[in-house]
């Protein structure tokens, strides 16, 4: 729950600020999680918040995606960020600024050393740049689709803002029926399949051919399902 997380952060504040923060929390509520997602558990949040506030260096064991998956790092905490129900620690390590998802911290120890904080560091500016570079790395492939006017106008209801901005920037002029070719950034063909299927008949994949074939396979399976009597054994696609 967001409320429980807020209480953990409040408990890390010194007494002279806790009353003021509590007064604000009693009058303003931040519910950052999406409607259809739950907030991640972050059991180490209180210790991290204490270290951030008191500028104490941390030693942490962290589970990451790359190999080796479990690493040990000594970091200088610089700030906490709550993004879409998930907490992140921004910290300095080996002269660079890194971002750690707090739910992926396996364990940690607060060291009896003061954290170093670069004078020029600004948390909001760093996070803005981090999100931009993250989207560029994550959405490294492209797909070209033909979209109906209805689907094109409704893109914000289907995709995240970064994808919508890139798609609109890469959109061609509408044809005589209002359809237009749109270049989408995608993470991979596998991840793009369910996104494209949500667009229904108002979208046609032109490239890559692998994505077009995958959508055709799913569409054919759906047709076979709905042309069969209700309750029949479902027909599945191979991928």
> How much strand content do the residues show?
25-35%
CA-based shape? elongated
Q: How many structurally independent domains?
A: 2
Oligomer: single chain
Tally of helical runs:
8
Order of helices and strands: HHHEEEEEHEHHEHEH
Strand and helix map with partners:
Elements lengths: L1 H10 L3 H13 L17 H10 L1 E8 L6 E14 L2 E8 L2 E6 L3 E10 L8 H16 L2 E7 L1 H5 L7 H9 L10 E7 L2 H9 L5 E5 L1 H18 L13
Task: Put the structure in a nutshell.
By secondary structure, this protein is α+β, with helices and mostly antiparallel strands.
Keywords:
single chain, three-stranded antiparallel beta sheet, elongated, 2 domains, 38% helix
Can you describe this structure?
- The chain is built from 8 helices and 8 strands.
- It is of the alpha+beta class and 239 residues long.
- It has a 5-stranded antiparallel beta sheet with strand order 4-3-2-1-5, covered by helices on one side. A 3-stranded antiparallel beta sheet has the order 7-6-8.
- Strand 2 and strand 3 form a beta hairpin.
- The longest helix has 18 residues, at 209-226.
- 18% of the residues are buried.
